[in-house]
Write a structure and sequence with these properties.
Layout (H helix, E strand, L loop, with lengths): L2 H7 L3 H13 L1 H9 L3 H28 L8 H19 L7 H26 L6 H32 L4 H24 L16 H9 L2 H31 L8 H10 L2 H12 L1 H18 L8 H13 L3 H21 L4 H29 L11 H26 L6 H22 L4
Helix pairs in contact: 2-7, 2-8, 3-4, 4-6, 4-16, 5-6, 5-8, 6-16, 7-8, 7-11, 7-12, 7-15, 10-15, 10-16, 10-17, 11-14, 12-13, 13-15, 13-17, 15-16, 15-18, 16-17
Length: 448
C-alpha cells in the first residue's frame, strides 16, 4: 500500500498518544490545583480507570476476534470506542466551572473504556491489513512515527500556554483538548475508510476466559515477546520516572526539567524510519536485539553523568531519541506473525487477544518500574523535598537512573536472541494459511 494510505489508516494514533501523556501527567494536577478536586480522590478515580482499561483489553480483544458484521470485525469496535474516547476527552479537558467529582469520574470511565475499545482492535487490524513479514514492520514504524509526533505536539502545548498566560491551568486543558478532539473525529473517519476490514473464513474457538488464558500461556513465542516488551517498558518507565529528578537535583538544571522530554522526543520523530530499515535488513527479532543493545549502551553511558557534564546528558538524550520505540516497534510487529503461527497450528484466530495482552505487558512494565524505582532511590537517601541531598544520595539517583534501563534493555535483548520465527518461517506459514483459507472459501460456494 502507498505510504499516504497507511498514514491515513494510522490517523487515530495521533489523538490516542496526544491524550495519553496529558491525562497522566497534567489533568489530575490541574483539576486539583485549579478546580479544587481533592488529589486523593483524583488518584483513586484515575487508578480505577486504568484498572478497568487493563481488564477490558483482553475481553475486547477476544470479542473483536469473533465479531462478524457487514462492517467487518474491527470497525464496529473502533467506531464505538472512538466516540467514547472523544466524549471522555471532552469531559476531562473542558471541565465546567464548579466541576464535580462525579463529572470527572464519568470522564475518566468514558476515556479509559473508549481507549481500550479503540486501541486494541486498531492494533489487531494493523497486523491484519498485510500478511507480508516486512510490510508489517513498515506499518508498525508509521504508528511509531505518528505517536512520536503526537507526543512532541502535546509537550509543546504547555510551553505555549506559559507564554500566553503563565499559570493558567484552564488554558492548558483547553489546548490539550483542542488538539485531541480536532484530530480524533477526523482521524476516526480517516482510519475507518482507509483500508478494507475483510473478515476471514469463520474459525470457531471457545470464548471462555480459560481457553483464552490457555492460548496465551501455552504459546512460548508470545510469552518471550511479552517478557521482552515488559522489560523494554520497564526500562523506559525507570528513565521517565527519574528524569526530572536527575536533571533538577543531580545535574542542577531545573530550567531543563520539562524541556528535556521535548528535546528527546523531538529526535524520536526520526527513529521510526531508521529502525524500519534496520528491521528490513536484519529481520524483526535481530533488529529488536540490536535496538535493545543500543539502548542498553546509551543508558550505561548515563553512569558518567555529573553536574559539570550536562553536555553528556544532552548527547545521550539525543541518541535515546534516535532509538526511541525501536524495540517496541519490532516486538509489536512480531505479535501479528505469532498470531498467524497460532492460527495455522490450532485454527483459532487470536490476533485481537494477543495484541490486548501485548498492551497489558506495556502497562505492567511501566507500572512496575515506577513502583520499584521511586521507593529504591528513596531508600538510598534521595528526598526531593529535602533542602539539600547528600552527594551519595545524588550519585545513587544517577546509578539507578542509568542501570535500571540498561539492565532492562539488556534483558530484552537476551530474550529475543535466537527467536525462531523469522521471515522465511513466516512466509511458509502464510503460504499454508492462504492455501487452507482458499479451500475453506471454496467449500462455501454452492455447486452449480
Amino acid at each position: 500500500m502507498s505510504t499516504l494510505r497507511l498514514l491515513r489508516f494510522s490517523a487515530l494514533v495521533v489523538p490516542l498518544y496526544a491524550a495519553a501523556q496529558p491525562v497522566i501527567a497534567y489533568v489530575p494536577a490541574l483539576l486539583s490545583r485549579h478546580y479544587g478536586i481533592p488529589l486523593a480522590t483524583l488518584g483513586l478515580l484515575f487508578l480505577a480507570g486504568q484498572v478497568i482499561n487493563s481488564l477490558l483489553d483482553p475481553l475486547i480483544g477476544t470479542l473483536s476476534d469473533r465479531t462478524q458484521s457487514r462492517f467487518g470485525r474491527r470497525r464496529p469496535w473502533i467506531f464505538g470506542g472512538g466516540l467514547l474516547f472523544a466524549a471522555g476527552s471532552a469531559i476531562l479537558f473542558f471541565p465546567p466551572a464548579g466541576v464535580s467529582t462525579a463529572w470527572v469520574g464519568l470522564g475518566v470511565m468514558l476515556y479509559y473504556c473508549g481507549s481500550s475499545a479503540l486501541s486494541t482492535p486498531l492494533m489487531a487490524w494493523s497486523g491484519e491489513i498485510s500478511g507480508d513479514y516486512h510490510e508489517r514492520t513498515r506499518i508498525a514504524s508509521l504508528f511509531t512515527l505518528l505517536s512520536s509526533c503526537a507526543l512532541v505536539l502535546a509537550l509543546v502545548l504547555p510551553a505555549i500556554a506559559d507564554q500566553l498566560r503563565p499559570g493558567d491551568g484552564q488554558l492548558r486543558l483547553t489546548l490539550f483538548g483542542t488538539l485531541v478532539l480536532s484530530t480524533a473525529l477526523p482521524g476516526l473517519w480517516l482510519t475507518l475508510t482507509a483500508v478494507p476490514d475483510s473478515t476471514p473464513p469463520a474459525l470457531e474457538h471457545s470464548p471462555s476466559p480459560r481457553a483464552a488464558l490457555k492460548a496465551v500461556l501455552g504459546n512460548p513465542l508470545l510469552l518471550r515477546v511479552l517478557a521482552a516488551d515488559a522489560a523494554v517498558t520497564a526500562g523506559q518507565g525507570v528513565r521517565t520516572g527519574l528524569l526530572l529528578f536527575v536533571v533538577t537535583f543531580a545535574l542542577g538544571r531545573p530550567e531543563w526539567a520539562a524541556a528535556m522530554f521535548l528535546f528527546q522526543y523531538s529526535f524520536g520523530i526520526l527513529a521510526a524510519p531508521i529502525w524500519q530499515r534496520v528491521g528490513k535488513a536484519l529481520g524483526k527479532a535481530q533488529g529488536a536485539v540490536l535496538a535493545e543493545l543500543v539502548q542498553a549502551a546509551i543508558n550505561f553511558g548515563l553512569l558518567f553523568l555529573s553536574a559539570d557534564r550536562f553536555w553528556l546528558m544532552l548527547l545521550l538524550a539525543a541518541l535515546q531519541g534516535l532509538s526511541q520505540g525501536s524495540g517496541n516497534l519490532m516486538l509489536r510487529s512480531i505479535v501479528s506473525d505469532i498470531a498467524d503461527d497460532h492460527r495455522l497450528a490450532t485454527g483459532e484466530d487470536r490476533t485481537g487477544l494477543y495484541f490486548s495482552v501485548f498492551g497489558i505487558s506495556i502497562k505492567l512494565g511501566g507500572a512496575l518500574a515506577v513502583g520499584i524505582a521511586l521507593p529504591l532511590v528513596a531508600w538510598l537517601g534521595f528526598d526531593p523535598k529535602a533542602a539539600a541531598n547528600t552527594p551519595d544520595a545524588l550519585r545513587w539517583l544517577i546509578v539507578v537512573f542509568a542501570l535500571g534501563p540498561a539492565l532492562a534493555h539488556s534483558a530484552a535483548a537476551t530474550l529475543m536472541l535466537g527467536f525462531p520465527l523469522d521471515a522465511k518461517r513466516h512466509t511458509e506459514i502464510r503460504r499454508q494459511l492462504e492455501a487452507r483459507d482458499s479451500v475453506a472459501a471454496a467449500a462455501l460456494v454452492p455447486a452449480e
